[in-house]
Amino acid sequence: MDFLPPTLKKLKAFDELLHKEGFSLDEGIGLQWADSSIAYDQTPYDVLPFMSPGVDGIHVGLLTDFGKVTDLEEAFVVCVHPMEAPDSLKLLARNSKEFVDFLYSDRHLMMLYNFMMIESAEQYQAMVDESDKNYEESPELAEARNQVLTMMKEYMGCERIENVYDYVEDVAASRRRQIVLPTNDGIGVALLNKTDADLPIYKVSEDDDINLDEAKAFFASAPLESKLAFIRDAQYANLIDNQTPLKGFIMSELKKMGMDGEVERLKSLDW
Question: What highest taxon heads this organism's lineage (predicted)?
Answer without folding.
Answer: Bacteria
